[in-house]
UniProtKB/TrEMBL annotation, chains A, B:
PROSITE patterns documented for this protein: AA_TRANSFER_CLASS_5 (PS00595)
Record-given protein name: Alanine--glyoxylate aminotransferase family protein
Entry similarity comment: Belongs to the class-V pyridoxal-phosphate-dependent aminotransferase family.
Species in which this protein is naturally found: Deinococcus detaillensis
Regions that span the bilayer: none
Residue segments, region Disordered: 1-30
Pfam families: Aminotran_5 (PF00266)
Amino acid sequence: MKLLEISRPSRPQTDYPEHTLLTPGPTPIHPRAMKALTRPMLGHMDEEVFKLNRAIQADLREMYGTAPGAFTALLAGTGSLGMEAGFANLVEQGDEVLICANGSFGRRMAEMAARYGANVRLVTAPLGEAINPGDVADQLGNAQMVAVVHGETSTGVLNPVPEIAEIVRRSGALLTVDAVTTAGMEPFEMQAWGVDYVYTGAQKCLSAPPGLAPVAISERAFARFAARRQPTPLWYCDFEGLRGYWLEQTYHHTVPVNLHFAFAEALRAALEEGLPERAARVRMMGAAITTALTPLGFSPYVRREQDRLPTVLALRLPEGLDDAAVRKELRKREISITGGLGPTAGLIWRLGLMGEAARPAPYRILMSALEDILNAPGLVKRFEAALER
Amino acid sequence: MKLLEISRPSRPQTDYPEHTLLTPGPTPIHPRAMKALTRPMLGHMDEEVFKLNRAIQADLREMYGTAPGAFTALLAGTGSLGMEAGFANLVEQGDEVLICANGSFGRRMAEMAARYGANVRLVTAPLGEAINPGDVADQLGNAQMVAVVHGETSTGVLNPVPEIAEIVRRSGALLTVDAVTTAGMEPFEMQAWGVDYVYTGAQKCLSAPPGLAPVAISERAFARFAARRQPTPLWYCDFEGLRGYWLEQTYHHTVPVNLHFAFAEALRAALEEGLPERAARVRMMGAAITTALTPLGFSPYVRREQDRLPTVLALRLPEGLDDAAVRKELRKREISITGGLGPTAGLIWRLGLMGEAARPAPYRILMSALEDILNAPGLVKRFEAALER
């Protein structure tokens, strides 16, 4: 007992200052969501919570552009659980699954699908390039499911989901889409495109606290689920249990009600602002940042303009810039930005433009710090001028 | 689009009053945890968060009474995910698993183990009675794992985990324990008893917000995991990914940092109060409530005193009491208590005495309301007198 007490780490600091979070997630929490977090506690089976859940479901239909009355819900976990729930419920031993893998989240999809028994085939693309829909058509074969990441956080690439969906729909395969860095900020049209399962993470484009994965599930997906030969191993996210709680108010497991409170406010704020307005805001911010940084030698990492993911701005660093040293200096000033991953480490920065991060205020803080650290007079002025345009 | 807007439910009420939550979970949030929820946002890979995580891990070792340096962590989901992660990582196709099932959570364990391929056998007990350790010994056979719910929330029964553990340890099988209604409030000695996997839910005995499942995993369990023939389907809670994030600070998935902030405070508050002091507090509260209600015809539902779970007080209702009507009237006054489940519906109440619910203040509110609703003068006076003892 004494031994344990001695080995306990010193108490962590809990009164640290406000932080400027410009990473590809989590994002700064929306003020309305932050306030809702501390609403009086209720149980997961209370009528007030069910009423709130129904409002969330309706708002999610709008965000995802679903068919009228389509099933939507929050999974009680982060975005990766949203990814896993799709494969767990819709894939069975021996199923053929084609996965578009041009970054680390596409590869994560492949690993999960394989764990649930799929024969996985990959459509790839060179790093920093989008998946070519023609490649999907060529490799489709007898795939029962195709899965694609809409916005690859790891490289800042936007995959052409509408074009891929058109090909998949003709084949009868299900289409699973990872909308983690897009839904709520970029247009998403589940019904019009023909998507069967889509998920995101609360802490990305909606600036709600992490811990929830909003999903939408098509009737076709439910039909596939109903035809399973075996129940899914994943009891926690079993579509039947999920439907029971969200449609029939039957107990499945406790849900994180405080996160529901916050999520509902963040989603409402997004819809009140307007999804087209949010998409325009991201583009305006991305253009202003790029304009301001270009004279210092920064350049877009993703070559083709249509392949660039607006919500994660991937910029190639100028020759000679010491990535680690600059980010460390920024961190000292309570500013977080993110570098590359794997092969792009040290070569790029990934600037988050999701939700509340896509605002002039936090980027003013970054520009001002960079002007000082990089000894680059005029940076703030250029940024302000670009915002005016 | 218009159609969707018309069908959207009316905005839910968000300014409801403070609520008295006396259910078997979630519990009223600890004030320190509530305050921590709105701490400035950080990323899941920030050093401040890793430092906080290490403090949480050390405190969890103390709460669970683990071996020095044993692995502890928070799963990013509710208690049922804690249950599932144990079977997902430690069971493989064809394994023999013996499950003590004397309530709905024991039966949930059996369903999960089967989904992960186990040959499940059950040890049962009559409703409202504890598992007999002799029955476990008789049925142990070649089981590779035994699983038991420490406190059955559904019936208010405490199972004799130390006695069961002694039998299991001799056999070489792994022992999984559901400590959802016990850990943090009742003594738990993972190392001394010989438990290999234990979990709870943040919103139970610790009065933190729901959405986290604190777990502890023994070296024996990790050895079993390392010897798997196939990776677990459950990528999200894969022990290797978990160990990577919690020990080596490598990215696995985003964690709900706001919930970590709150959880750390709630756990610290529990350890500062002292686990023996908390166990005494629950017993004092349970005795006072029982003393106050007995003259009205309430009586303990669980026959044998040693089988009674102190944190969920199951009381048989007096003849003629209209369960639904009384609870509805309480709910109008913003007080939630819970009735029976399945065969005990309408026959019992289950009063939550976990964490912040086990305080005189919220039960004063209940007693005062019951004195009025049941027209039972003297109830509050009896309760106060019993608290004095």
